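Note to self: keep these together.
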Amino acid sequence: MADLKLTNIGKSYGEVKILEHINLDIKSGELIVFVGPSGCGKSTLLRMIAGLERITEGELQIDGTVVNDVPPAQRGIAMVFQSYALYPHMTVRENMAFALKIAKKTSQEITDAVENAARILQLTPYLDRLPKALSGGQRQRVAIGRAIVRDPKVFLFDEPLSNLDAALRVATRIEIAQLKEAMPDRTMIYVTHDQVEAMTLASRIVVLADRGVSQVGTPLDLYQRPENEFVAQFIGSPSMNLLAGEIVGTGEMTTVRLDGGGTGQVALPTTAADMGLKVNLGVRPEDLEPTEGEGLYTGVVDIVEALGEVTLLYFEPEGDHHAMIAKLPGIHAGLRHKTVTLSAAPELLHLFHNGQSLRAR
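Structure:
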């Protein structure tokens, strides 16, 4: 069991700042997922926790002990990389046991640790196979098993599913979730650019952007209550639609007149001081539904993607307005080039001013 505390952590390469003012409290037993766009510093932050990158500024504590200058091998951490990095001439058993042999563990300790990890990861039938005789998902499980046998305080996963095909990604993601249930007292930190992995695995998600932390929260917190436009559009697929407008009515319900001509009623209290405020109204594609009357948005359907369980409607952009996307349940045929009006429930709408959510004021 291990708590981690990151205080004003920063990373620079010369004059170039990669990360700054990272403050996180990670509790023992949590599965924390770092997400963000490419180049935001997710893997760099993970490698600083592991001790593979020097911390330029700030303080990292593990169980109350500052470990900035502690070597990686002494931090009680095991890391699973994107590449499996298995020894091709060694069996699964030998790959998993290698680190314990280097650590001078007894034969019985090694056998017990390997067999326990193999049982957890359902690798027992494959212990005497070479890596070339395994599927990609099985090889990744061996890499995870190699970390488990060390019995670390903290597991670090650096995009471990990136090399797998779609079906194996789903299967291995489920196995990682089952692994966490089997080891509830172990702290895990997981880096991914795949928001499905983040939403399904995380106790809490840390969204990184602009060299810092954009928001921290449970998956549903980030989905339902994004604190800024970046998180609102990064979490969720397709991204949240943003419609420019102006507040024309305040009170328990806020009325927004949209630049495109529609009107939105938002279940968000505002005051008279907010009257006339320029805002962006946010609505998720899956919260939109066609309506016969007045709605948020009226446009011409440009592209229809029929996926069976859902239908995606892409609307023609008008002027400076971004293209709208609606995600409707079921099959909706014959809508291409048709004019459709969309509405959404007031409690499902979001308001942003200068990029920040009005709910977070």
